[in-house]
Specification:
Blueprint: E1 2-8, H1 22-41, E2 46-51, E3 55-56, E4 65-75, E5 79-88, E6 94-105, H2 123-132
Antiparallel strand pairs: 1-4, 2-6, 3-6, 4-5, 5-6
Length: 134
């Protein structure tokens, strides 16, 4: 699993128990999945279709740093299925696992659009490729 993003838990991210609010964490995961999908599918029109069952296994407190990991499960025709693990960098505990996040590639009219991708592409390779066209 590649951990792409770190988030610092701030006072505004806390619930009344003074631990990381689950809704905030889910928003971070959704944003990370969207950004990852946009880069992989080379299309800014990507939406979340499905997120599987979630189970909070531990938490984080103010000042902790959490890491969000994303892996590709499979490439569909117009979708990209991801998995995510979020861990507390301070305690090394897993906070949450989401085994299936389905992202859908859309056209300009908001309809599913085939993306033609079959494997992970690394940005540095894509950027190198684009710079060759100049």
């Amino acid at each position: 699993m590649r951990f792409h993003t770190r988030k610092w838990v701030k006072p505004q991210d806390l619930n009344p128990n003074k631990t990381l609010f689950g809704g905030t964490l889910l928003a971070w995961i959704d944003e990370e999945a969207a950004l990852y999908s946009i880069v992989q599918l080379e299309n800014p029109h990507v939406v979340t279709k499905y997120m599987s069952e979630i189970n909070f296994m531990s938490s984080a407190r103010e000042g902790d740093i959490v890491e969000i990991g994303i892996d590709v499960v499979k490439f569909g025709k117009s979708s990209l299925v991801l998995r995510s693990v979020v861990r507390n960098k301070m305690t090394q505990e897993i906070i949450i696992r989401v085994e299936n996040i389905t992202m859908v590639n859309l056209d300009e009219n908001g309809k599913p659009k085939p993306h033609g991708k079959k494997e992970i592409e690394f940005v540095k390779n894509r950027l190198d490729f684009r710079s060759d066209k100049n």
